[in-house]
Amino acid sequence: MGMQLPAAFAKSYREFTSYPENLVHKSTYVGGLRNYRTQLDEAQNKLFTTKDANINVPFRDLQQSGNAFDKQKMRDDDELKTWLGDRSASDPNALATKKDPQCRFIFIYSRHSHAQLNISRIMFARILSYHQVMPGYLEFVSVFGIHNHFREPRFSGFRDQSSLTKNTKLEVDGLGRSGRQFQLCWNLKAPGKWTEEGTLTPGPEKWSLRQGAFHHQFDVEKGTALWIITKPGLDIKDRIQDVTGKSGNEEDRSFMTPEQCMRSSFAIHLLIGHWATEKWRQYFQWLEDKIEDETFLLVYDVRGPDKNKQLYSSSNLQRAQEFEEQTNEATMALQGNADVLASLKNFYQALSQSNDFPLRKNCSSDIGVFVRQIESFVYDSNMQIARGKLLAQIVAARKAIILQHLQSQATEKMEGLTLSMKRDSTTVRIIGTMTFLYLPGTFVSVSELHQSTKAILIDVFNRPSSALT
């Protein structure tokens, strides 16, 4: 038998295909919601899989008993409806038949960063409508899917939406939703060693940047939490399973009280922060090694008239330009990470000072510890940003040296051509001088011979024919 649901929520969920225009709590003006939907319509063929065989959406739910996580992979929309508790196919009034889990993780992933997400448009809209996910999350998800250009590192952001006082529009008692909640969505970037298929490789030759889009909801009265994680691959899913599984720390996988749920949410935040910051040192080391291998002779090669010179071409300049852009994009991605993490820290600091936050007293020390850990992530990111800026300056300077060498080589070629033309000019003058000296004498000799021959012929023709015989 179905639960008694608020009419506004029931209507919103039934119209899930119109997400985000169907949301109960409209934090964005109507025109903005319409634009979000239009963008989703236009991007759906690139963003979502069109093959049923590729659909795979892992869920990881901790039920209210808090004993263990239930895991399930959704292969189609019918499986998703059943998992959520939607029995409307057999009973139109049974839109919801069970409460939300104490903690739910949803993993939306793709094979690699340029592949479609392994979820259909219908399933995506159903998930976001059922959980009333803020529309800003679409901005972060839209960078995935099939793209012709690599643009992920150039977009970073953080969005929040808080309803700490009871919001009757968001209150769904049957599902265990108090109407007092906050929502966060953000993205972070991290380097990794990848092949073209998106799998890890043993060597550093395939380093590239990948990003994740994260959504988090927390009911400050009930303590229920929702996480939606969208990124290429399932490596964060594996990490979350380690943290929340039996081998994890007890305080990181305790969800019996709202305070424990808040502490466990901090553990997931920090896990994501570690993922986004832990490999930047190796990535910049890889960049530095490649740049040094390519431009070593620019600095240490001895050039002189008696030395064998290293010749440079436009391909060397092109490689230097590629390194410079790669370094600048990495630095920009890191700066985006630092700003997002700082925004996350500021949000929780403000939350701890809000009189409407019921866990303010019991979780104040936990928030303080969490804030200091986030600050350490920001500090590490800023150190790597300084490293990236210095590396970009080095690449720019070496690119300028390559340009100088190219100009020098062009000048040397022009000098060689000028010298060759000078030698040719000298040869022409010598031939002209020889012609001037010897041609008049030749002309006189030929003229005398011509006159003698002419006299003989006249004499022959003037003789009588008897004389010729």
Give structural notes:
- With 469 residues, the protein is α+β, with helices and mostly antiparallel strands.
- The chain contains eleven helices and seven strands.
- It has helices at residues 7-14, 30-47, 77-84, 121-130, 137-141, 235-244, 258-277, 280-300, 314-352, 364-462, 465-468; strands at 57-62, 69-74, 103-110, 158-163, 181-193, 207-219, 225-232.
- It has a seven-stranded mixed beta sheet, sandwiched between helices.
- Strand 1 and strand 2 (69-74) form a beta hairpin.
- Helix 8 (280-300) runs antiparallel to helix 9 and helix 9 packs antiparallel against helix 10.
- The longest helix is centred in the C-terminal third of the chain and has 99 residues, at 364-462.
- The radius of gyration is 39 Å and the shape is elongated.
Keywords:
7-stranded mixed sheet, alpha+beta, 469 residues, 11 helices, 52% helix
Question: Quick recap of the structure?
Answer:
This protein is of the alpha+beta class and 469 residues long. Helix content is 52%, strand content 13%. The protein is elongated and about 150 Å long.
Spatial strand sequence of the major β-sheet: 2-1-3-7-6-5-4
Order of helices and strands: HHEEHEHHEEEEHHHHHH
Shape: elongated
User: Could you estimate the helical fraction of the residues in percent?
Assistant: 40-55%
Beta content comes to: 5-15%
Mean pLDDT comes to: 86
Number of strands: 7
Largest sheet: 7 strands, mixed
Distance between the termini: 149 Å
Rg on CA atoms, Å = 39 Å
Helical region count?
11
Structural class comes to alpha+beta
- Low-pLDDT stretches are 196-204
